[in-house]
Amino acid sequence: MAKDIGTTARMLIHHFGSKETLVADVLVAIERGFAQRTAAYVGNDRTISFALNRMWTETAAPAMDSALRAMFEVWGHALVQPSRYEAFLESLTEPWIDMLRRRLEHAGHKAADAVILATLAVGAFQGLQLVRLTSGDRARSAAALKTLTQWLDPAPPKTPRSRKRKHSS
Fold first, then answer.
1. What is the 3-state secondary structure (H, E, C) of 72-132?
2. How many CA atoms lie within 13 A of 132 on its CB side?
3. Which domains does the chain have, with CATH numbers?
4. Rounded to whole angstroms, how far apart are CA atoms 123 and 60?
5. Cβ atoms within 10 A of the Cβ of 1, count?
6. In whole angstroms, what is the distance from residue 162 CA to residue 169 CA?
7. Which among 41, 42, 54, 55 is least surrounded, fewest beta carbons within 10 Å?
8. Helix, strand, coil share of the chain (percent; to 5)
9. How confident is the model over 20-71, as pLDDT tens digits?
């Protein structure tokens, strides 16, 4: 990385304080990029299903696997040393929960319900990414996401068909 940006590894470590902080900061930038792109295409007229499916398409792409593995590795370190990785931990859940909460509120959910549903959606999404990476079963993880999104955004109820009355003449 140092070579690519025209500096030395020593200068990078000096600037960031440690290799771990450098990696965490890079992952925060990646996470913020995901959040910004997602917010840009998840408007008020979009469903939670749409948002989660777009997030899945971006993050579950095979090219993203190494970045996600690094994220989960740093996440483990961050849980052991939260003060050292505060910005990283904040970037992993709260921006996503807040974005989905706002969308759920716009869809008519009460604020307290919206934050719980958004928390469930983000936790399940992240868990499904972990399951996908550890099991290698992309299809099963995608099917589980589909079930989650159907539950969060059920199809509108069908209106009953009016029965035709037989007329006796």
1. HHHHHHHHHCCCCCHHHHHHHHHHHHHHHHHHHHHCCCCHHHHHHHHHHHHHHHHHHHHHH
2. 26
3. 19-152 (1.10.357)
4. 16
5. 10
6. 21
7. 41
8. 75, 0, 25
9. 777 777 777 777 777 777 666 666 567 778 888 888 988 899 998 988 898 8
